Amino acid sequence: MLPVEPCRPGNQRDCDRNYDLIWVFSLDYHSWHNICVYVRVRWYYEMRIEKHPILEFTTGRKVIFTFDGKVMEGFEGETIAAALHAAGVRTMRESGQLHRPRGLFCNIGNCSSCLMVVNGEPNVRVCVERLQEGMIVETQKGKGELK
Amino acid sequence: MRYTEIAIVGGGPAGLAAALNASKLGARVVLIDRNDYLGGQLIKQTHRFFGSKQQRASERGIDIAGELASQVRTNQHINVMTGATALGFYEDGVLALEQHNKIITVKAERIIIATGGAEKTLLFPNNDLPGVYGAGAVQTLVNVFGVKPGKKVLMVGAGNIGVIVSYQLLQAGVEVAAIIEAGPGIGAYWVHAAKVVRAGVPIYTRHTIKAAHGAKEVTGATIVQLDENWQQMPGTGKEIDADVICLSVGLTPLTEILWQAGCKMVYVPELSGNVPLRSDNLETSVPGIYVAGDVAGIEEASAAMMEGALAGLNAAASLGYTLDGLEADRQNVLQQLEGLRSGPVGEKIRKGLAQAIC
Fold first, then answer.
1. Cα–Cα distance measured from residue B183 to residue A93, given in angstroms and rounded to the nearest whole number
2. Which of A98, A122, B35, B207 has the fewest beta carbons closer than 10 A?
3. How large is the ipTM?
4. Residue A146 predicted with pLDDT over 80
């Protein structure tokens, strides 16, 4: 995981770097804040395809979600797996017996390699589950528990 | 319980063609797909198809998917259920679906199963590491969502899918370190293979993957040469620097519902797995259950559309529906299929079908 580099939480105008800003809810201030996410934004541009000879990618609006407590951004309507890949995250689960890391394999909902805990619900196939604003996505360990 | 004349499970090329053709004769159709869109795996096919004009050659799968899906959605005889997963088939002919966290039951007079296939994997140390993907998985990530799987890819398998996906990765700006193929030759159409070779990607035939490396994710792989007996040759190991390993080692039919329905199945290696025994009309050993597309044996999208058309026409005709020129339509589809399966390219399929049609 790459660290998020906060750059003077507060007003967007305070940020002299010309990088993308995202809104996060700050527990310190009990309000929404803009933070500069220079490092992650650079990743985002590396993993997203910007130019393609045949395809044009249309995306939903930018949304924020968390992965194991870290704030991330993605596009509404893309799969959770796609948003995680775009953020450089490829490990989604830990196997039950040998605690091996697991990621995507089939990416179309067949194989169950990518099961994660989403909003507290385990065994969600993140390769087909669509990203929504504020989702809480967590690495799944073993079979997961129904709460 | 919902009642309909024909229920079709799977909204890919076979299912869409089946729905359009069955409704053309006047049958009422429910088309079921577990995804929230129609088109199946066509939606990630950005290359131009081969074949004749009637088989939609030189069109891209992604465009065909859009066109067929809109025809289906505007057809009044077809009721589309997306986001609906077929969970079970019961003895009394009831199909159970899960849609939006609810169980729905459907009873149909005829059922067409067009569930397609699933990607196979390959046995080697560390094949479970994040970074080892099916080639189709990478194709979805890149062509549907515009996201790269990593920086540098090792492609395993030089059949059509392996080579086409390699080319599509290059188009997306991802480096392809090499394509390896266990067989003695390149299986893909030469026009595709030539493109990746021109782009500087080496294709190693008679090579396989010995192991993937990495503690938490893929960081590389060792490839090794195979002898005439498909055994690894000592001293021929080569290190490949890659953070993505793509397995393009074929698909296998997704036949769960057919097993559950009690259809007679037969293992046919040429069709890539267990497939249903069926008649020339694509009806299985259970009367009223038809099959079309990859679930009946792995081929490609053009053949799936033709089989879908045939199954749709036959299922509707068996309900008593007819149309002027129905027989000519059917003969035309059969001829198209024969054309697609002719010549040396179709030899394997012809051999497989001979064991599956009774």
1. 34
2. A98
3. 0.92
4. no
Secondary structure of A43-81 in the HEC alphabet? Answer: HHHHHECCCCCCCCCCCCCEEEEEECCEEEEEECCCEHH
| Residues B70-87 pLDDT 10s | 999 999 999 999 999 999
Facing B145 at nearest CB: one of A82, A92, A108: A82
Give me the helices (H) in chain B, please: 13-24, 61-73, 135-143, 160-171, 190-198, 256-260, 301-318, 326-340, 347-356
Residue B320: partners with Cβ closer than 8 Å, 6 or more residues away: none
Contact between chains at B134 and A49 (C-beta distance less than 8 A): no
Angle at B151 between CA B146 and CA B154, to 5 degrees: 105
How many of the other CB atoms lie within 10 Å of CB of B150? 24
| CB A123 within 8 Å of CB A100 | no
Alpha-carbon gap, residue B110 to B35, rounded angstroms = 22
Q: Which residues from chain A sit within 8 angstroms of residue B34, using beta carbons?
A: 109
Taking the Cβ of residue A48 and every Cβ of chain B, the question of whether any pair is shorter than 8 Å is answered with: yes
Residue bearing tokens 């985002």: A44
Mean per-residue pLDDT over chain A, rounded? 80
Contact call for A108 and B143, based on CB within 8 A: no
Residue type, B200: G
Question: Which residue in this structure is represented by tokens 């991330």?
Answer: A72
Residues 6+ apart with CB under 8 A from B233: B224, B225, B226, B227
C-alpha Rg value of chain A to the nearest Å: 16
CB contacts of B146 in chain A (<8 Å) are 48-49, 52, 55, 57, 59
The pTM of the full predicted model, rounded to 2 decimals, is 0.89
Q: Which residues have C-beta within 8 Å of that of residue B293, sequence separation ≥ 6?
A: B10, B12, B13, B14, B15, B114, B116, B299, B303, B304, B307, B308
The rounded percent of chain A whose pLDDT value lies above 90 is 61
pLDDT for res A18: 41
Task: Determine the number of helices (DSSP H) and then strands (DSSP E) in chain A.
Answer: 2, 10
Question: Hey, what's the torsion of the CAs at B252, B334, B38, B75, to 10 degrees?
Answer: -160
pLDDT for the residue numbered A29 = 56
How far is residue B292's CA from residue B20's CA, in Å, rounded to a whole number? Answer: 14
Residue-level pLDDT at A6: 46
Distant-in-sequence, close-in-space partners of A103: CB < 8 Å, separation ≥ 6 = A90, A91, A92, A93, A113, A114, B129, B130, B131, B132, B133, B217
Q: Using an 8 Å Cβ cutoff, are B117 and B272 in contact?
A: yes
Task: Please name every residue paired with A116 in a beta bridge, in sequence order, or none if there are none.
Answer: A124
d(CA A123, CA B169): 30
pLDDT at B345: 83
User: Which residues of chain B are modeled with pLDDT < 70?
Assistant: none
Q: Report the distance separating Cα B268 and Cα B356, nearest Å.
A: 7
Nearest CA in chain B to A95: B128
